[in-house]
Fold:
Amino acid sequence: MRIAYLTSYDVLDSSKWPKNQVGLCGAGYYLAKTLESQSTPLDYVGSLKQIKPSLKHKLKWHLNQKLFKKDYFYFLEPSVLEAYSAQVLPKLAKFNSNVVLCPENAIPLAYLECQQPIVLWTDAPLSASINFYPWLSNLTQETFNHLLAMEKLAFEKCQLLIFLSDWAAQTAIETYGINPAKVVVIPWGANIETNRNNEDIHNIVEAKNNKCCKLLFIGVDWFRKGGDIAFEIAKELNSRGIETELSVLGCEPEIEVPLPKYVKTLGFISKYTREGLNKINQLFTDSHFLVLPSRADFSPHVFCEANSFGLPCIGTQVGGIPTLIKHDFNGKTFSLRASISEYCNYIATLMNNYSDYKTLAYSSFNEYQSRLNWSVAGQTAKKIIEGIL
Structure:
């Protein structure tokens, strides 16, 4: 089986990845390398040239912004989507691929007409972002309609749809009336190099102690990712007499009081430099919990990355997160209505019964090894894709 690996970006050149899509592009890279390591030849179909907005598109954007205060996205116009998909055929013609796999979103597929069966592997339907993520929460009716029409058309063209979570799969089925038989759930892995074994995890876990509870928050959006909740958790734990430290990576804390000494701000650190990766790895190694109480999220790779270090995760029952975090296996998810005390009770109980914490840490690594890594994802997907040929 030869796979035409379709991406709008250059999956092999991280210097060209859009800054706001580094996570998605990184996933595309690790998936590609995993499939190749499993003796699956890939024909790289990308990058695609972005279609520039016409004068008409610019005028529509200006009018909607100024007059109606609504967001209009020209790239969802059928004519633009058609021109976008048209770039794929000449590239496909160069290869003898058996199947087209797009590890991105539905946009390049909406108007793609090819002989090969099409597989989309994505975190969630774009429609699930509407009124969930800020950037898709103020759409014009026209853009809203275009998005739904585009995604429905693309999903109908696909012989197989792979999502990262049960929530995403069910959302797609309910929104578009998709046949559940062509929908599967396969989580992605960690967007970092992972070669740790059980002995490594034993050394990491046993090197920690419960004298200071070290919490790690990673996110570029302080409020959406629940940084304020993470801060309140650290604050209450300290007030209970449990010495706690909160490291904040990816953004600056937005709090109204002076920053306490127990909050360590690290700014943005790139995992795509050796120095940055070493620093991030050390944070995962030293911490007791990854705390990411997101208000809106799909399937954050950082949970898989944390588990690869035996680091338990604390998240919310939002989006696809409950597929990744299983209670008492690799952490716990909380309701958006949960109180700070509920989070703190969970953490305090484990820190005060430290043998239970260690058991959870080892179990977290087992979850990574058994289902939250690229190798398992690649092997599972490869078998299912072969079944549609």
Notes: The radius of gyration is 22 Å. The longest strand covers residues 158-163. The chain has two domains: 3-189+374-386, 198-371.
